[in-house]
Amino acid sequence: MSTERTVERPITVLHADDDSSFLDLAEAYLERELASAEVLTANGPEEGLDRLDGSIDCVISDYDMPGMDGLEFFEAIRDRRPRLPFVLYTGKGSEEIASRAINAGVTGYFQKGGPDQYQRLANRIEHAAHEYRSARESERYSTVLQALSYPIYVVGTDVTFEYVNDAFLELVGYDREEVIGAPTSLIKSEEGVERANEMLARIISSSGPDTEQFEVDIHPRDGEPIPCRDHMAALPFDEEFRGSVGILRDISEQERRRRELIRQNERLEEFVSVISHDLRSPLDMAETATELARETGDPEYFEKVATAHDRMEQMIDELLTLARTGEAVSQTDCLSLRGLAEEAHSTCAAEANIEIASAVAVEGETGRMRHLFENLIGNAVRHAGPDVTITVGALDDEEGFYVADDGPGIPEENRDQVFEPGFTTDDEGTGFGLAIVRRIADAHDWEVRVDESEDGGTRFAFTGCQTVPVEDASVWDATA
């Protein structure tokens, strides 16, 4: 990478004194001692104020001058350029003047003298001017970085944060005082820190790129890790490494879309499998029955054709439901579990008994939550009979809710398979009901698993969703 330093303009020094011959002598000495300096002279403080502009990096002044003394001149300059370096260089000084000057905040105080004194003066001017320029440059960069909307950081050679902008603080949730001086491990895992070090090593190598981009999880004060893309570069340097700078970009939405695309592809593969396999059986049955009906004229075969067509229609309807319920939820309501269960029970027209163990509500999309409870209650009735008791409540040991029954239960070896499209142990079932249940859970970013209920039946546990008191429910509030 290129490490060529940008050429800086010469230091500009303004020297004010009422002795013109001394000004000429001082100008010659200073320009000899400071090869990169330009010295401007002013005969007295009034002319000095007239010559003061934004290019001046340091002011030198005598003390005893007509019109105003050196400290009054300093105050006048400070009103215009508050942090401009000011060195008092006088031949009529005293301890009292020196004390007043230092207390007033001048950058330096020197008695006029020979070559050695000029050397000390030149060193002080060079140091003060460079500090002043660096501070101004930092302020300009800071203003620009604060104005940018992306989170930005600067990390020093000790791998601690030296600068962060407001967008960075908003991302991580820490105060500035907590971040500045803290190691990068404050917001990155050990793996993330190692990854950043690898990228930085490539950047500063002689054959490496100027910048690197890599994905890293940022760990905020509160909440889950935030997937980000880190755009990193080294600070400009010649021989000695000075640190690195980076810009973070939150890619959570990009990751969400990527996961959704993966889910869509998985659903597409499932649909192809169902269409090519599960629909084949009723289609073959209809074709065979049609051929036999033509040959024999027996009305029994026409009934078999109708039955096969009804089954295919049912499977197609549930396939469409499966496709629609898998889309991510965009709008939710606070739904009473009692209201959901009772509404689904009435829709299913089943004889099952519904018991509510917890008077709570959950955030969900109304239409899909209705489908979820309808499918769970219908599944329980199909496998356990019309006298089944279905219990709904909040989980005790984790955030979420459950729907349980007292039926025969699901063998442990089949519990992972029951959510697969087309899997069923019922000759009359399509195998899509519980697949739809899982799709609805996925769309809400929940997890669903199958356990054994307290009565030895089946319990469907939904986790990753927070339950709230039922009085907070806005839809299907059973207490209303």
Number of domains: 4
> Assembly state here?
single chain
Approximately how much beta-strand content do the residues carry?
15-25%
End-to-end separation in angstroms reads: 70 Å
- Give the class-level CATH name of the largest domain: Alpha Beta
Largest sheet: 5 strands, parallel
Query: CATH architecture of the largest domain, please?
Result: 2-Layer Sandwich
Helix content: 40-55%
What gyration radius follows from the Cα positions, in whole Å? 40 Å
Based on secondary structure, the structural category is alpha/beta
Categorize the overall geometry: elongated
Mean pLDDT: 83
Major sheet: order of its strands?
A: 2-1-3-4-5
Number of helices: 14
Instruction: Output the CATH topology of the largest domain.
Output: Heat Shock Protein 90
Number of beta strands: 18
Poorly predicted runs: 1-7
Assign the CATH superfamily of the largest domain.
Histidine kinase-like ATPase, C-terminal domain
Produce a short descriptive summary.
By secondary structure, the protein is α/β, with parallel strands linked by helices.
Q: What would you note in describing this structure?
A:
Strand 6 and strand 7 form a beta hairpin. The protein has four domains: 133 residues, Rossmann fold, CATH 3.40.50.2300; 103 residues, PAS domain (Beta-Lactamase), CATH 3.30.450.20; 68 residues, Helix Hairpins (Orthogonal Bundle), CATH 1.10.287.130; 152 residues, 2-Layer Sandwich (Heat Shock Protein 90). The protein is an alpha/beta fold. The N terminus is likely disordered. It has a five-stranded parallel beta sheet, sandwiched between helices. The chain contains 14 helices and 18 strands.
